[in-house]
Design brief:
Length: about 200
């Protein structure tokens, strides 16, 4: 036997489906509408609570995902800073080791500056101040005077206050400072600014 509910404006009516030749039980028909309403109402309440729980779960999951995303971004920022600090610390150590071993060669930097940047250095004499060891290495490394082919008056002078593998180039317009440590520091700042 199955029960079907048809809503009317007045009150629900229950139907009892009987096999052919059976008479419906009148007492059962009277009790069925109330029991059916109670069952349907209970089911509707359970469905509403389940829907509310699902909506709350979705809301909680969205909030948790937002927190996870914020935490990941913060940790990635922290890791980025850490990795950059570590990488540039290692680069600085390698640079210091190369300078101490005498493998850092100023010739390419100095030659490029004198040939490529000559127009921006103005007219007149160019004076290059070098650490005593670099002065000796440069004079040995160049055949003849390093700027002889430039057609300019270039003087290379010793200055003990200039750090090893660095130089100070002076013209009447101003000066250019070169230091591997300064270049590394500027690269570090530039990368950190771009990541910020």
């Amino acid at each position: 036997m199955s029960l079907v509910q048809i809503p009317f404006n007045t009150r629900p009516v229950g139907f009892q489906v009987c096999r052919k030749g059976q008479n419906p039980d009148s007492d059962a028909l009277e009790a069925q509408p109330t029991a059916l309403i109670d069952i349907l109402y209970d089911q509707q309440e359970r469905d509403a609570r389940a829907t509310e729980a699902c909506l709350q779960l979705v809301s909680d999951l969205q909030a948790a995902l937002g927190q996870i995303r914020e935490t990941m971004e913060a940790r990635l920022d922290d890791m980025t800073d850490y990795v950059l600090t570590l990488a540039f610390g290692l680069a600085e150590r390698v640079l210091d080791r190369e300078i101490a071993a005498g493998r850092y060669d100023l010739r390419p930097t100095l030659t490029e500056l004198l040939t490529q940047g000559l127009h921006g250095l103005g007219e007149g004499a160019i004076r290059i101040f070098l650490h005593p060891i670099d002065h000796e290495r440069l004079l040995r490394g160049f055949s003849g005077h390093p700027a002889a082919s430039l057609g300019r008056d270039v003087e290379m002078e010793v200055d003990p206050s200039v750090a090893l593998c660095s130089f100070r180039l002076e013209t009447r317009l101003g000066q250019v400072l070169h230091s591997p440590e300064l270049l590394l520091e500027r690269m570090t700042q530039k990368i950190q600014e771009e990541l910020a």
